[in-house]
Amino acid sequence: MREYPRIQDMFEYYYMLGEDRTLQAVADHYNISRVTVSKYNKEFRWEERVKSRDLEVYKDLQQQNNDDIRTTLESYHKVIKASVADYISRLKSNKIKVDTVRDFVRLVELDMKICGFEAQLFETKISEAINHDISGETCKTLNTLIDALNNKIDDGGGSDGGVQ
Predict the structure, then answer these.
(1) pLDDT by residue (tens digit) across 122-149?
(2) Phi-psi region of 163 (alpha: psi -120 to 50; beta: other; left: phi over 0)
(3) How far apart are CA 49 and CA 89, in angstroms?
(4) What is the rounded distance in angstroms from the CA atom of residue 74 to the CA atom of residue 81?
(5) Is 110 in contact with 80 (CB distance < 8 Å)?
(6) pLDDT tens digits, residue range 70-98?
(7) Contacting residues for 95 by C-beta, under 8 A, at least 6 apart
(8) DSSP 37-59
(9) What is the mean pLDDT of residues 94-111?
């Protein structure tokens, strides 16, 4: 049997019924018998087509969600990079008096997590500075880290940070 446009329309109506989908609803809507609709249902594999289309819709939504998440993470990464660059610039020009590096640490850790890197090495290097005032040795370590980050930024190595 050929699936004429009217039968295709019936399937589309059947599909659009969603959770309220019944063969009887299609029969009532098109003013035909339920037996006829049941015949079309079996002949043209409506149940299989519904599952297939639902799966396609699910995959499309999943891809859209993944794309939205990726775009959001990329935006966060750009904001964090700009904040870190601004922090380093203001620190170098003595516009910031460093008493604690808590905010800087948080920015860098967040950026590393967004980029998929483990912040453990970074945390180990300056863990003293998170909870205490900067001592001479910790300040030296921080300055070394800042110089390394600044060199990476100057070299263009920090342009993307791995977010794709």
Answers:
(1) 555 545 444 454 455 555 656 666 666 5
(2) beta
(3) 60
(4) 10
(5) yes
(6) 888 888 888 888 887 887 788 778 787 66
(7) none
(8) HHHHHHHTTHHHHHHHHHHHHHH
(9) 71
